[in-house]
C-alpha cells in the first residue's frame, strides 16, 4: 500500500509459462497446478521441473493426468497478498480447458475482502495466458487500475492468436481428444493436425497436413493471414523440442518478426499435446 492506496499484485498460474526473469522483474505470483504420475501428485514447476516431467512422460506407459489448484490454496495466496497491503489481479488458464479459474473464484469468496480480488479468465493457455499476465503486470507497475487492465486485456484477447502443430497423435488419443480409428489412420498417413485456439478458448482444427515441412509451411501461412502486432512480444513454444523452436525462430526472423522469445511449454499442457509440439503465441494487428 502506498499513500493510502492499494497497489495491484498480478497472480497467474504455472501454465502461463512465463520465464523466471519475467516473473522476477514484475513481481508476478504464480500458483502451481498439479501433474499426476501413477497416483502421485507433483506441484507443477515446484516439485517437478519441465525437463523432469517430460523424461517421466516419455518413460511412462500411462499418460499423466493433471488437476487444478484447490480453492483453499487460491484463498491462501490471495489472502497473503491482501494482508501485505496489495490488491490482487489474477489471470487464469482458460475456463474452457481447466477448472482453475473456478477454483480462483471460490478462493476469492473465502478471503476477508473479496472486492479487492479481480479474477480474469484469459480464455488462453501457456504463453498466451502468460502474455496477458505480463501486460497486466506492466500496467499495474504503471499504476493503472484493475478496470483499465481488464479493458486492455479484453482488446488483446480479442486479437490473440495461438496456433500449434503436434508431432504425435498418441497423447491426443490417450487423453480422449481423438478416437482410436482416427489415431490409426492419422499415424499411417503421417498426418499432422494444425490446431488453433479460437477467441472463445476452444481448440479448433486450422488444417491437417502430411509431414514436418508442410506443417511448418502451414503455420507460416497462418501468420501471414494474421499479421502480428510488431510492438508486442511474440512467443515460440515447444514441448521438449528446442531445436525445432530455434529453427522456427530463424524462419520468423527472416520474415521480419524479430521480437520473439522461446519458451518451453509446461507439463500440464504438454501432457495433452505431446512431446515435439511447437506453437506460436502472439497478438495480431486486427
Number of strands: 13
Q: Element order, helices and strands? A: EHEEEHEHEHEHHEHHEEHEHEHE
The value of Rg in angstroms is 19 Å
Distance between the amino and carboxyl termini? 37 Å
CATH topology (level 3) name of the largest domain: Rossmann fold
Helix content: 40-55%
Q: So what's the overall shape?
A: globular
Q: State which percent range the strand residues make up.
A: 15-25%
Structural class: alpha/beta
Please tell me the CATH architecture of the largest domain by its name: 3-Layer(aba) Sandwich
Number of domains: 2
Mean pLDDT, nearest integer? 90
Number of helices: 11
The CATH class of the largest domain: Alpha Beta
Largest sheet, in brief, is: 6 strands, mixed
Strands of the widest sheet, in order across it, are 10-9-8-13-11-12
Could you characterize what this model shows?
This protein has helices at residues 20-26, 50-59, 71-83, 100-108, 127-141, 146-159, 170-174, 180-188, 212-225, 242-254, 267-273; strands at 7-13, 29-31, 34-37, 40-43, 65-67, 86-92, 117-121, 160-165, 191-197, 203-210, 234-238, 260-264, 278-283. It is an alpha/beta fold and 286 residues long. The protein has two domains: 7-158, 3-Layer(aba) Sandwich (Rossmann fold), CATH 3.40.50.10170; 160-283, Hypothetical Protein Tm841, Chain: A,domain 3 (2-Layer Sandwich), CATH 3.30.1180.10. It has a six-stranded mixed sheet with strand order 10-9-8-13-11-12, with helices on both faces. Strands 2-1-6-7 form a four-stranded parallel sheet, sandwiched between helices. Strand 11, helix 10 (242-254) and strand 12 form a beta-alpha-beta unit. Helix 3 (71-83) packs across helix 4 and helix 5 runs antiparallel to helix 6 (146-159). Residues 1-5 and 177-189 have low confidence and may be disordered.
Amino acid at each position: 500500500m502506498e499513500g493510502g492506496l492499494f497497489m495491484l499484485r498480478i497472480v497467474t498460474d504455472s501454465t502461463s509459462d512465463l520465464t523466471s526473469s519475467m516473473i522476477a522483474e514484475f513481481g508476478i505470483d504464480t500458483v502451481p497446478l498439479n501433474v499426476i504420475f501413477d497416483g502421485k501428485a507433483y506441484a507443477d514447476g515446484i516439485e517437478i521441473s519441465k525437463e523432469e516431467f517430460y523424461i517421466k512422460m516419455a518413460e511412462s506407459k500411462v499418460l499423466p493426468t493433471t488437476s487444478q489448484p484447490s480453492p483453499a490454496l487460491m484463498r491462501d495466496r490471495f489472502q497473503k497478498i491482501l494482508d501485505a497491503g496489495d490488491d490482487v489481479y489474477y489471470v487464469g488458464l482458460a475456463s474452457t480447458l481447466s477448472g482453475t479459474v473456478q477454483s480462483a473464484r471460490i478462493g476469492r469468496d473465502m478471503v476477508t475482502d473479496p472486492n479487492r480480488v479481480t479474477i480474469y479468465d484469459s480464455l488462453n493457455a501457456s504463453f498466451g495466458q502468460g502474455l496477458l499476465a505480463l501486460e497486466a503486470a506492466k500496467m499495474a507497475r504503471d499504476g493503472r487500475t484493475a478496470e483499465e487492465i481488464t479493458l486492455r486485456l479484453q482488446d488483446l484477447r480479442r486479437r490473440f492468436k495461438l496456433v500449434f502443430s503436434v508431432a504425435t497423435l498418441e497423447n491426443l488419443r490417450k487423453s480422449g481428444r481423438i478416437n482410436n480409428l482416427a489415431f490409426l489412420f492419422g499415424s499411417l498417413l503421417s498426418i499432422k493436425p494444425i490446431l488453433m485456439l479460437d477467441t472463445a478458448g476452444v481448440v479448433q482444427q486450422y488444417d491437417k497436413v502430411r509431414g514436418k515441412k508442410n506443417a511448418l509451411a502451414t503455420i507460416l501461412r497462418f501468420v501471414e493471414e494474421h499479421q502480428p502486432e510488431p510492438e508486442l512480444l511474440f512467443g515460440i513454444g515447444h514441448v521438449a523440442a528446442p531445436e525445432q523452436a530455434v529453427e522456427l525462430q530463424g524462419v520468423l526472423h527472416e520474415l521480419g518478426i524479430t521480437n520473439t522469445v522461446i519458451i518451453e511449454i509446461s507439463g500440464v499442457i504438454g501432457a495433452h499435446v505431446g512431446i515435439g509440439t511447437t506453437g506460436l503465441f502472439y497478438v495480431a494487428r486486427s
